[in-house]
Design goal:
7-stranded parallel sheet; single chain; 658 residues; 6-stranded parallel sheet; alpha/beta
Length: 658
């Protein structure tokens, strides 16, 4: 199997003087070039020897395991992509020249370095629920593999619970893979790990240098015992002795790869664990609908942590009706929320104000002619980032300087509409001029060192107000935070997205769970501002009735013939030229298969029809789960010649419908 867009394997002559085994990485001639590949299987064809080329060289590395080869086949088949491109993802840190000269360049595996233990370095004492959960995890190491849902409220000690499984693997010289959804979570998790175990885990994400990645890659092949924490791409490292996989915050959308080869890291990790016959733990306070469904149908084993590990109560959630309690004109925080923020500030308590919108304002328009400032590459508005004095497109990255003159009528009456977190920070600063404020969004996470410094200031109690987007809602333990104010609880509830209610429930429950995790004898408090106080999702959050939400959502999905009861595959077709796109879309539709139990919807313009300089149409294919929908889609695509002006992308189990 060669690196690149290949599903078939190619035959070569092996050197009889060298032992040739399945799993070896080799360099072979291919046309006028040389390509890396892996010996995938023995030849099944009778080909004349004089028509075959010889393997040029063998790379001096341990063999890839049978489960790697099986994983490549499954991954490509499930996600409708090429096996050779999956292999390319596995060997991603190396080019042809660097892997060829591996011995000469002397890339040594990384040895885990011990850190000095202090008196705090120890396992935390587990409570009754944590002990029961950890016992079930430990039992599974000596039985058939199990997929566990570790379902615990925010602050219930899920991390400390699965650390028991990590400890078992370390003692038994096994490798452990921990998947986290965000780079920002890695440093906080790593610190907790070091305090518990006394050594540093290996860390893998996009911010790691290439030379470091090569060393880590080799470590997974050579080091029998290691712990690695990383983003979704860590799943493709060539582990040789894997004993446990943990998917922390398993519900998080960051585990879904939306560009290039589309896949869901959680789902691929579940398959990988079953193939190696090792336990996998899916940890979350707000499990995904698919995971909850699998738990309810007994495909997964559920481990419940219903109470906080600190003994503190879950926060009280109060819904603020903005129709009855509107903010002052030009402001976004109601008088009720401002009074609570003031009380906390006077008492030297920390508060978090949450709004899931980056920048200063999501829309700028001209009062004179109504022109909206928009992106030249996308049919989307530009977001004002006042801190940088830029308008920025959150889809393609296009930016230009903020101007007071309208580009349409040249009038100077530009108005910012709606709030982003920069505007909320400005409002808080106006109300509390002597306060210390820290803002968090994906813009600030780009500099991981600054992010970690800000996080340390918060944990040390040196910050009065934290203002953030969803980035601060994920897994952080903020010991001094007792109040959370949610500026706009309506964001994300409405629209045509199948998962809008699920995403809203997860996000607002997660951010609410930051409040009052370390206070005894009283509860933290959450204010949730909304124009629709009767909304079912918001009220299940208020009542902390998780079961009710999942029952309602599963019932709706079943009636609508949607996942997890049915299967969806999305096909996205794009081109720089709208006419060519529409003509190809119609031709493609004419070649569509006709099956009684398969629905093909489309072609239809994507909600974001023009993005990054390309027009996009979408097809949505639906069937029951008994049908091999991937095979139907692959056969459909193979029946048509795709011109170079067209890009076609297949998204199995889509999460993004834009």
């Amino acid at each position: 199997l060669l690196l690149g867009p290949y599903n078939k394997t190619f035959d070569y002559i092996a050197d009889e003087s060298k032992p040739t085994k399945v799993g070896q990485i080799v360099l072979v001639p291919f046309g006028k070039q040389e390509l890396l590949g892996i010996i995938f299987e023995d030849s099944k064809e009778n080909i004349q020897i004089d028509k075959l080329k010889k393997i040029k060289s063998f790379i001096s590395l341990p063999l890839f395991s049978n489960y790697h080869i099986d994983f490549i086949k499954f991954f490509a088949n499930w996600n409708c992509t090429y096996q050779g491109n999956v292999l390319k993802m596995i060997i991603s840190p190396f080019e042809k020249s660097s892997i060829q000269n591996l011995n000469r360049k002397n890339y040594k595996p990384i040895e885990e370095k011990k850190i000095k233990l202090d008196e705090k370095t120890n396992f935390k004492k587990l409570n009754f629920n944590q002990k029961n959960a950890s016992k079930d995890i430990l039992k599974s190491f000596n039985a058939n593999s199990k997929c566990f849902l570790l379902d615990g409220v925010a602050g219930s000690g899920k991390t400390e619970t699965y650390f028991e499984g990590v400890n078992y693997c370390i003692k038994n010289n096994k490798q452990v893979l921990i998947l986290l959804p965000e780079i920002g979570l890695t440093s906080d998790w790593k610190l907790r790990f070091e305090k518990t175990f006394g050594f540093k885990p290996l860390v893998w994400h996009s911010g790691i240098t290439k030379s470091r990645k090569k060393k880590i890659w080799l470590s997974t092949l050579y080091n029998k015992k290691l712990v690695l924490v990383g983003a979704r791409s860590a799943l493709f490292l060539p582990f040789k002795n894997l004993g446990l996989i943990v998917v922390d915050e398993e519900h998080d959308l960051s585990f879904k790869q939306e560009e290039g080869i589309r896949y869901h890291a959680r789902d691929m990790a579940i398959y990988l664990a079953s193939k190696i016959n090792i336990p996998i733990i899916l940890s979350s306070a707000t499990p995904s609908i698919e995971t909850m469904f699998n738990a309810k149908t007994k495909k997964f084993s559920t481990l419940n942590l219903p109470a906080r590990a600190t003994g503190s109560a879950l926060p009280e959630i109060q819904i603020i009706d903005l129709k009855k309690n509107p903010p002052l004109k030009g402001n976004w925080l109601s008088d009720i929320m401002l009074k609570e923020l003031n009380r906390r500030f006077v008492n030297k308590e920390q508060s978090l104000i949450f709004l899931n919108r980056r920048g200063y304002s999501p829309l700028t328009l001209c009062k004179n002619c109504g022109h909206r400032v928009h992106c030249k590459n996308c049919n989307a508005w530009l977001v004002e980032h006042r801190k940088d004095n830029n308008y920025l497109c959150h889809h393609c990255g296009f930016k230009r300087k903020v101007s007071q003159n309208c580009e349409n009528c040249n009038d100077g009456q530009m108005v910012s509409c709606g709030p982003g977190i920069e505007k909320i920070s400005e409002e808080v600063k106006n109300n509390f001029p002597n306060s210390i404020i820290e803002s968090f969004s994906s813009d600030t996470v780009n500099n991981i060192n600054e992010f970690n410094e800000s996080l340390k200031k918060i944990k040390d109690g040196k910050v009065d107000f934290i203002i953030g987007t969803q980035i601060i809602a994920k897994g952080y333990d903020l010991p001094n935070l007792n109040f959370v104010g949610i500026v706009d609880g309506d964001i994300g509830i409405y629209g045509g997205d199948l998962r809008s209610s699920e995403k809203c429930f997860q996000l607002l429950t997660q951010v609410s769970g930051r409040a009052g995790r370390h206070i005894k004898n009283k509860r933290g408090l959450v204010h949730l501002q909304t124009y629709n106080p009767e909304n079912l999702v918001l009220n299940t959050i208020k009542e902390m009735d998780k079961e009710k939400f999942y029952e309602e959502e599963l019932s709706y999905r079943k009636k609508a013939s949607m996942p997890p009861f049915f299967r969806l595959i999305s096909i996205i077709i794009s081109s720089k030229y709208e006419k060519i796109l529409n003509e190809f879309s119609l031709t493609f539709h004419e070649k569509a298969p006709n099956y009684e139990e398969v629905d093909i919807l489309g072609p239809a313009p994507a909600p974001l029809h023009y993005i990054r300089g390309r027009y996009r149409n979408r097809f949505l294919i639906r069937s029951n789960k008994k049908i091999d929908l991937q095979n139907i889609v692959r056969n459909w695509v193979s029946r048509i010649q795709i011109p170079s002006s067209i890009r076609l992308s297949i998204d199995v189990d889509p999460y993004n419908f834009l």
